[in-house]
Amino acid sequence: MTAHLQSGQTAPMRSCPFFCWVLPSQVSMSQSTMSEARPGAETEAVYTTEPPVALSPLAIALIELALAAGGFGIGTGEFAIMGLLPDVATTYGVTVPQAGYVITAYALGVVIGAPIIAVLAARMTRRALLLGLMGLFAAGNILSAVAPDFLSFTLLRFITGLPHGAYFGVAALVAASMAPIHKRARAVGRVMLGLTIATLLGTPLATFFGQLLSWRAAFMLVGGIGLLTVALLWLFQPRDKVEEGASVWRELGAFRRVQVWLTLAIAAVGFGGMFSVFSYIAKTTTDVAMMPVSTVSMVLALFGIGMNVGNVVGSRLADISLNGTIGGMLAFNVLVMTVFGMTADNPFMLCLCVFLIGCGFAACPAVQTRLMDVAQDAQTLAAALNHSAFNVANALGPWLAGMSIAAGYGFASSGFVGCAL
Fold first, then answer.
1. What predicted TM-score, i.e. pTM, was given to this entire model?
2. Strand 32-35 to 46-49 pairing
3. Type and span of the H or E element at 48
4. What is the Cα 178 distance to its own chain's centre?
């Protein structure tokens, strides 16, 4: 949403097909502006990209719904495979550990795709980019569902992961551009609700249908969600123009900014602790807390509820203070994961700590919004890289926790690994 109009002009209605209007006094005079800081927040410069037209509250809500639907589809597709690995292994005649390579292939696609797509698409409008990314995601999942052999399936999971990071990055930029400066993080949080709700509802439902019918049906379902998102974006996302001065070299400028690297490091290392615990939570529940296997789904649901609570609360806190929210949540995670490591043998404490670890997701909207600020005029690349960093965390945390467990320190030691990260 980067088009701008001269003072007094009105945009043609085709530029915003549903529920929006243009008020000449509200039309943006420039695309990228250095705005005043949020009330009560840090005093650093805040770079924003303003919407091309003044949108009604209903129009904004529908755009955010469309963006969140894409996040719901991506989250469902990313995590559902974890519960369907045995079925995939049986279909292709491979072992479950070998089937796990498809998860690695998807994560690799996210890490590689986010920066490459963000840079190469610098001269694309955000509407066109979002439609293309979600179209690729939908096609990748549908083709995954009919993949004839394991090699093609693995390759298709890599391709499906390519648009993941770029989609969330651009979606966050679009959401923030429609909100006042002091409510940007909440707008980003509403888009991220699609991802957090997927961990609570989408993934269990896709896994259920996949086990009931076929794992192929689960990927068809995720592909259908992708196609629905394309339709919603086509209907509700206003047409825009390429931002003036946008180029590959300008986006690459994000790599020259130290604060971008430091913020990405927080995401890559800090969130590794959450993944170190989450990856082994099933075995910790049954082997350490000695809870029945039937309670694992309940414990996972607690983690999903915590993520949703953290996303809502964290986005509000981030609008007050970005750095305060990030620092405060990192300290909160250190405390909670230490307690987890010490009390995981107690079922009540395990459930409480799992919920609170999920709440640690509260830092995510703050990290995403800070990247937009410190990237200045290279926001697309920086915003997309955030999800590359999360996938680095998803690899780093389980790997280090696995080493600790293999060394004989037990599954509860994943909490201490998370604390260290």
1. 0.74
2. antiparallel
3. strand 46-49
4. 19
Q: How far apart are CA 240 and CA 45, in angstroms?
A: 25
Place of tokens 């005079």: 29
Instruction: Compute the 3-state secondary structure of the chain and give helix, strand, coil in percent, each to the nearest 5.
Output: 75, 0, 20
β-bridge mates for residue 55, sequence order = 20
Q: Are 322 and 368 in contact (CB under 8 A)?
A: no
Beta bridge partners of 49: 32
Q: What is the DSSP string of 306-354?
A: HHHHHHHHHHHHHHH-HHHHHHHHHHHHHHHHHHHHHHTTSHHHHHHHH
Q: Which amino acid is at 134?
A: M
The dihedral built from the CA positions of residue 222, 224, 229 and 234, taken in this order, carries a sign that is positive
Q: What is the pLDDT of residues 89-142, one digit of tens each?
A: 888 888 766 777 787 788 888 888 888 887 787 778 888 889 999 999 999 999
State how far the Cα of 278 lies from the Cα of 275, in Å rounded to an integer.
5
Give the chain's radius of gyration (CA, Å): 21
The whole-angstrom separation of Cα 342 and Cα 98 is 33
- Angstrom CA distances, 348 to 331, 343, 353, stand at 22, 9, 9
Contact 360, 419 (CB under 8 A): no
Between residues 248 and 233, the one the model is more confident about: 233
Identity of the amino acid at 279: S
In this structure, the dihedral spanned by the alpha carbons of residues 34, 35, 38 and 43, taken in order and rounded to 10 degrees, is 50
